[in-house]
Here is the input.
Amino acid sequence: QVQLQESGGGSVEPGESLRLSCQLSQLTGDRYCMGWVRQVAGRERETVASIRSDQTENYAEFTTGRFAISRDNSNNMLYLDMNHLGPEDTAMYYCVAADPTKIGAWRACHARGSGVFRFWGRGTQVTVES
Here is the structure.
């Protein structure tokens, strides 16, 4: 059973940085599409960043060069480094992954929206406030 477990959220002040981590269990193979999705209560989910096994990455416009997604294949970890955080980044952040057996999901990995992601972690809260 695929499991995604996030960690690293917390409360920080504007301008500070956080690294979110995601431990991936039972999600192996050479082909992958993974990412981070965030949601503010009462608002739609939005994909923050995605990474694919062909080493391509995609970021939402609002990240404006402040965020970086990466994967440690040897340790089966996914990361999101977030810098220059602002109050607008306050949200629940979810680690997500597409079904690695679905080539269509892999191809659509960087498409707008989070519909390609089949597996979700429980989320980690990020709060940015003075």
Q: What stands out?
A: The chain has a mean pLDDT of 94. The two ends are 40 Å apart (CA to CA). Residues 47 and 114 are 6 Å apart (CA to CA). The first helix runs from residue 103 to 107.
